[in-house]
Amino acid sequence: MKGIFQTLTLLLVPALLMGQVPIQGPIKISENKRFFTQHDGSPFFWMADTAWELFHRTNREEADYYLTIRAKQGFNVVQAVALAEIDGLNDPNSYGEVPFQNVESLSFNQKYWEHVDYIIDLAAEKGIHIALLPTWGDKLFKDSWGVGPEIFSKENAEQFGELIGARYADKKNLIWVLGGDRNPRKDFEDVEIWNRMAKGIKSHSNKNNPILMTFHPQPNRPGGSSTWFHQEKWLDFNMHQTGHCPNQPTYRIISHDYGLNPTKPTLDGEPLYEEHPNCFNAKELGYSNPDDIRRIMYWNVFAGGAGQTYGCHAVWQMYTLDKKPINGPLKPWQKSLELPMANQVKHLKNLMLSKSYFNRIPDFGLVKSKQEDDEHFVIGTRDTAGTYAMIYFPSGRETELDFSILVNNKIKAEWFDPRTGVKFPYTGNELTKGKNRVLPPSQGKGNDWVLIVN
After folding, report:
1. Are 51 and 67 in contact (CB under 8 A)?
2. Which of 55, 190, 371, 405 is disulfide-compatible with 184, CB 3.0–4.6 A?
3. Are 294 and 448 a contacting pair, CB within 8 Å?
4. How far is Cα 187 from Cα 178, in angstroms, rounded to an integer?
5. Any idea where the Putative collagen-binding domain is (predicted)?
6. Within 58-210, where are the H helices?
């Protein structure tokens, strides 16, 4: 029996690590309201990919290929939109279907929604949750870059919420995400419209299958979804879009929502994408690089984020050569699935899950050196008991740290390489329980390191 058990364990563990075990139920909020848990209460680190156009621009074989790659890379959430951004009401999906038989009456075209159903179920089989946006925000108001058309109002938002809420109330791998890259406008009815859509969705919720809900905004300072909806009961956790510029102090944004009352998890749902024009200005600023993306991710999580979303510019729009490109994607989406950061994000997830999880807190006080809000900003996180701490060095700069909070008198340490996920022993000056000057193994842009002490 022991041999059989060991064999089964060896077979199962890789599948668990890669997120390929079929999902048993929706994720939940942890007891301390800071994190997410699996259906069984074990830790769930949100590691999402952005595939806004997944339902709109892929057929079933392509969706299978995409989800298989992302599951292998360790992603456990995919963010996608039912009423898609890129003319999703009028431009048919891969099977020639549009979402509505009649837009005014919101009567569903079942063939379109059956394709959405199929992909959601396929994702569940691969261990992936779908963070489902019922609609992109341009269906409420187009602004300067949306296609629309604007179809939602106070009069029909709840109706649409009821329709889509009833359809997916029993899905075990769903997370609701309202908003869709639009901030509610002042002196308009936008907040009320989103509240009514949330009400419609919640009216069909299954008490035995509670599905979490959040809101995806545009960049906003200092709060994201919390700016308009933090006190709403339907908002289970906060989401930010920190945007597509490389040198924003995103840790301040996460920290803002971390400190709000009531306590709710918070995370960055749209950071700088891989192969994205920096600040939408490729001519002058070039394209994003893994160093900047990695720095933003570690900053966010160490500042208290309950996970992190990744995105690739070609993948979110499922760009192929026969499609109109948006903001200069560099290659077809199939060629962009194996970019460096797509394979490095799992190292962050694995690092966070390697220590006691639910009692982890941000601790800016671990760093004693004077700092500016720039790309060199060093940030720390630890557990409440003081049994461990982690300090992220974005550029390998020598920094003064204070380990007084740790319970062990003799400090043990090791280095963690965010690029490879490899740990190796700390070699340098002996670390004490008080203040220490620490120099990472290498310095300069792209030489980021995590010091783990206990």
Report:
1. no
2. 190
3. yes
4. 20
5. 361-453
6. 60-72, 110-125, 157-168, 190-202
What are the domain boundaries of the chain?
A: 19-353, 363-453
DSSP-based helix, strand, coil % in the chain, nearest 5: 30, 20, 50
Residue given tokens 């364990």 in the structure block: 9
- Both tokens of 116, joined, read 């959405």
Give the number of other Cβ atoms within 10 Å of residue 114's Cβ: 12
Give the N- to C-terminal CA distance of the chain in Å, as an integer. Answer: 38
Report the predicted TM-score, pTM, of the whole model to 2 decimal places.
Answer: 0.94
243 by Cβ neighbours in 10 Å (0-12 / 13-18 / 19+) ranks as: buried
Residue length, the chain?
A: 454
Spatial contact of 177 and 80, defined as CB atoms under 8 Å apart: no
In whole angstroms, give the CA distance from residue 59 to residue 119. Answer: 9
pLDDT-based confidence at residue 9 (cuts at 50, 70, 90): very low
> Which residue, 454, 348, 332, is CA-closest to 76?
348
Distances (CA, A) of 442 to 206, 342, 413, 430, 445: 52, 23, 17, 18, 10
Task: Identify the DSSP state of 425.
Answer: E
- Topology of domain 19-353, CATH: TIM Barrel (3.20.20)
Return the DSSP state at 81.
Answer: E
DSSP assigned state of 329: -
275/340 Cα distance (integer angstroms)? 10
Could you tell me the two tokens for 304? 């208290």
Q: For residues 345 and 396, give the distance between their C-alpha atoms in angstroms, rounded to a whole number.
A: 19
For 411-443, the pLDDT digits (tens) are 999 999 999 999 999 988 899 999 999 999 999
Measuring CA to CA, which residue among 216, 277, 225 is closest to residue 246? 277
Task: Count, in order, helices (H) and strands (E) of the chain.
Answer: 12, 21
- Give CA–CA dist 413/423, Å, rounded: 10
- The answer to whether the beta carbons of residues 135 and 176 sit under 8 Å apart is no
Strand partners, 392: 379, 450
Tell me the backbone φ, ψ of residue 79, rounded to 5 degrees: -95, 120
pLDDT score for 5: 33
**Token couple for 275:** 């192969």
* Rg of the chain taking only CA atoms, in angstroms: 22
Q: What dihedral do alpha carbons 219, 223, 228, 234 form, nearest 10°?
A: 100
Give the Cβ contact number of residue 296 at 10 Å.
26
The top-level CATH class assigned to 363-453 is mainly beta
In the block, residue with structure tokens 């962050």: 348
Q: How far apart are CA 2 and CA 395, in angstroms?
A: 48
The DSSP annotation for 202-223 comes to HTT--TTS---EEE---S-SS-
